[in-house]
């Protein structure tokens, strides 16, 4: 963390001690991660700790692993009904390999046997189709907005309830 | 996994053994998670294993924790420049508490001391502002699409390179 920040003061209304301006460091715009040359217009908060990548790239990587997980779920559900033998083989492979790294899982599955290779190719196709056609991106955004509001309200309400209860007991 | 699936055959061109139709189970549409009464029109793949929730809700929950992580990063970077004492306090708290569950982290931070409470409220405000204003949702989608294409191509290319090399050696 080598730089100062662009502080959206309108959003941060909490009273914190006065900043020590003599410690302020050179301006480093958040746009360093984007290709837009909008140094001056950028009003975004500076997010450190992502190196050359962006928070969006980090989130996309996590979603990518999640899509592989979903694709495996879809394929196993399909196989369970239509092809019990392949289902058993995939379940057995799943018991031995972690799905945390989706690409590594698929790479290993491909190399297990020719039958496993077919399953791996199917998972690759399903995750691409799921990501592009089935996954509801707008819904994801809507749910995330709703979740942050709900969680913030709930955390503050619980805290107030707890502290007013304590004061009541005094 | 109690049901059969809606199989987008156009997307799944891989030759798998013929389905055993006698094992097919009752139709259960993917739309059970959405509010749309489009049983017949739904062409989405059935995703099992999310209970009453949806994959979108699961992904939103993960993003929610990620936004808390980002908000903590933003606030610590701000404090490092402007308020070294609060920075030290937050870093010390971070060394003792996991950020895996963002809401739990904030709840604990609120209850640590009145000064920590101010930091917690600031983190709540920043994560909401970040999620709604700064995070580039379109970019996330674009990067995820790009990632799935790139990973699929790369996995298949590596496999073909490896196997053709083996055949060449024979």
Automatic annotation (TrEMBL), chains A, B:
It comes from the Eukaryota. Gene3D superfamilies: Chaperonin-like RbcX. The keyword Chaperone applies. One of its GO terms (biological process) is ribulose bisphosphate carboxylase complex assembly. The keyword Chaperone applies. GO terms for molecular function: protein folding chaperone. InterPro entries: Chaperonin_RbcX_sf, Chaperonin_RcbX. Keywords: Carbon dioxide fixation, Chaperone, Photosynthesis. This is Chaperonin-like RBCX protein 1, chloroplastic.
């Amino acid at each position: 963390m080598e730089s100062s920040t662009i502080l959206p003061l309108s959003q941060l209304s909490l009273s914190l001690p006065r900043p020590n301006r003599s410690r302020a460091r050179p301006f480093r715009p958040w746009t360093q991660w984007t290709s837009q040359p909008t140094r001056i217009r950028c009003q975004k908060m500076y997010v450190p700790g992502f190196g050359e990548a962006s928070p969006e790239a980090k989130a996309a990587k996590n979603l990518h692993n999640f899509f592989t997980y979903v694709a495996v779920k879809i394929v196993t559900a399909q196989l369970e009904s239509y092809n019990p033998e392949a289902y058993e083989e995939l379940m057995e492979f799943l018991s031995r390999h972690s799905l945390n790294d989706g690409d590594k899982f698929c790479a290993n599955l491909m190399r297990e046997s020719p039958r496993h290779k077919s399953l791996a190719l199917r998972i690759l196709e399903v995750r691409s189709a799921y990501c592009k056609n089935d996954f509801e991106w707008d819904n994801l955004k809507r749910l995330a907005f709703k979740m942050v509001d709900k969680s913030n309200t709930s955390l503050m309400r619980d805290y107030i309830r707890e502290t007013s209860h304590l004061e009541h007991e005094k």
